[in-house]
Amino acid sequence: MTTYTAKAHTNIALLKYWGKADSQLIIPTTTSISLTLDEFYTETAVNFDASLTSDDIYINDDQITGAAGQKVVTFLNLVRQQANITDFAVVRSNNHVPTAAGLASSASAFAALAGAASAAAGISTDLTDLSRLARRGSGSASRSIFGGFVQWQRGNDDQSSVAEPIQQIIDWPIQLITVVISDQPKKINSRSGMQNAMQFSPDYPAWVKRTNAMVQPMQQAIQNHDLEMLGHMAERNALEMHAQNMMANPAFNYLTDRSWTIINTVQKLRREGILAFSTMDAGPNVKIISDPKDTETIIHALRSSVPDIQYQIATPGPGITIQQGNHLS
Ligand code: PMV
C-alpha cells in the first residue's frame, strides 16, 4: 500500500484537560482550550504492508518496543479495525520537539500518527475524524489536528468528543516562553496523575465546574485579543490543576522549587505592569504566555532569579498536513 507522511505540531493547554469521564474512550471531564505551537512538531510516515509479520516502529531512527511500542500498536489496531484491514505497518516518526524544551511530544506524535495511518489505510482524513481518532492515542492529541487556538469539546461519547478551531490565523501578539526546569521524563505520567487527582482530591468536582465555566470567557478573551484576560484565566486554571494534585491522597506534585521561583517571578513582573502569565503541565517546566515585545524584560527578570536559565520561544502554529509518499526531513 502507499506511504503517507503527516506533520503535526504540539500544543499547550490554556484551559486544562485533567481527568477522564471515560478512560476507555478518553472522554475528558472538562472542555479544554489550547494553542498549537509552530516550533515543535512531529513528522510520521506510515505504510501498511502485507508482507510484514508485526508492526515496525521507529522514532528518530530507533526501533521502539515495550510499553511505548505497545501504545502505537494499540492505536494501529484501532485504525486497522476502522479500515477493515489486517496488514501490519512500518511507522517512522521524527520528533522535532527537542527534549531540552521539556515539552510533551505525545500530542503532536499521536496527531501525526492518526493523520498518516488514516491516509495510508484509506480511511477518512476529515479533520474532525482525525481529531476523534487522535484523541484515542493521547487526549491532548485531539487538539493538535488544528492550528492556532483550539477547543476540545468534552462531549459525552466517542462521536461528540472532538476538537475544533477557535481562531486559526493569529494576527495579534502572543507567544509562549518555555522555561526548561528539567528535560527528564516525568515521574508520574499524566494518565496516573489525572486519575489520582480525580479520585482523591475533594475539590476535583468543583475544579471541573470552574474549568468548564471558564470556556466561554476564554473564548471571548481570544476573540477580543485580550492577552490580559486570557493569561489570568490560564494561570489560574493551571495553578488550580496543580492544586488538585496537592490535594490528592497521597499528595503529589510536578512543580519543583525552581518552577515556583519562575511562577513567583512572573507574578512579580505582572505587579510591575508586564503582561506575563504562567502555565504548567504534567512536569516542572513553566510556559510563560506573553507579548513578544516584552521578551527581553521577561528574560532579564528570569535571569536575575535563576541565572543559568534555559528557554525556548514558541509562536502560534498551523494544523496537520498530510502528503503522499515519504517526506520525513
Ligand atoms: O494528552 P495527555 O494524556 O498527555 O494529557 C495531557 C494533560 C495536560 O498536558 C496536563 C493538560 C492538557 O490539556 O494538555
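^ PMV complex. The chain has a mean pLDDT of 95. Residues 197 and 245 are 5 Å apart (CA to CA).
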